[in-house]
From TrEMBL:
This is DUF1211 domain-containing protein. Belongs to the TMEM175 family. The keyword Ion transport applies. The keyword Iron does not apply. The chain crosses the membrane at residues 6-23, 35-55, 75-95, 107-127, 147-180. Keywords: Ion channel, Ion transport, Membrane, Potassium, Potassium channel, Potassium transport, Transmembrane, Transmembrane helix, Transport. Its main location: membrane. It is a multi-pass membrane protein. It is found in: Membrane. It catalyses: K(+)(in) = K(+)(out). It comes from the Bacteria. PANTHER family: ENDOSOMAL/LYSOSOMAL POTASSIUM CHANNEL TMEM175 (PTHR31462), ENDOSOMAL_LYSOSOMAL PROTON CHANNEL TMEM175 (PTHR31462:SF5).
Length: 190
């Protein structure tokens, strides 16, 4: 089957996820800039989550440029990824509501870890569809950034028990690692 519907559906779900996150932002009571100061942690957690969702959308888009067709397993793997991404607004809100306490920060990291795992599964399902000798499989190859990200997520989840703000710093570092889109698929398409 063609890939157009999975791309359109994914784009729609990701747009809804971002919309839900922005709806969680409440306008301050007060008209001066000082009314925004108490909202700085909320805005920063929103920006971090927005960037993460954007990273997944961007890399999903790049990867699907190289996809020729999909099967049912790919549809389920994609839904698995979208499920974990859909929990981002919840985790973001929970962290903010509880002043970045240990458990919400750990859960946020676990959701990030599961998003990464789900993206990996999606890639593996696409390799099955296209074949291990395909251009797609060769382009996807092994991914050092993904391995580093997993290690950092696990470290951050553990360190949240000591200091949740260290974990948030690690989540920020992983986001910075992924800000540049995965260019392997762009190069393949040339």
């Amino acid at each position: 089957m063609g890939k157009g519907r999975i791309e359109a559906f994914s784009d729609g779900v990701i747009a809804i996820i971002i919309t839900i996150m922005v709806l969680e932002l409440k306008a301050p009571h007060g008209e001066g800039l000082q009314a925004l100061v108490p909202l700085i942690p909320t805005l920063l957690s929103y920006v971090l989550s927005f960037v993460y969702v954007g990273i997944y959308w961007n890399n999903h888009h790049h990867m699907f440029q190289a996809v020729k067709h999909v099967r049912g397993g790919v549809l389920w793997a994609n839904l698995h990824l979208l499920f974990w991404l859909s929990l981002m607004p919840f985790a973001t809100g929970w962290m903010d509501e509880n002043d970045f306490a240990m458990t919400p920060v750990m859960v946020y990291g676990f959701i990030l870890l599961m998003c990464g795992f789900a993206y990996y599964i999606l890639g593996q399902m696409l390799i099955r569809v296209h074949g291990t000798d395909s251009d797609f499989a060769q382009t996807l190859g092994s991914d050092r950034k993904a391995g580093i990200s997993v290690a950092l997520y696990i470290l951050a989840i553990i360190l949240a028990a000591i200091n949740p703000f260290i974990s948030l710093g690690i989540y920020f570092i992983v986001a910075c690692i992924w800000l540049v889109p995965d260019r392997r698929f762009e190069q393949m398409m040339r």
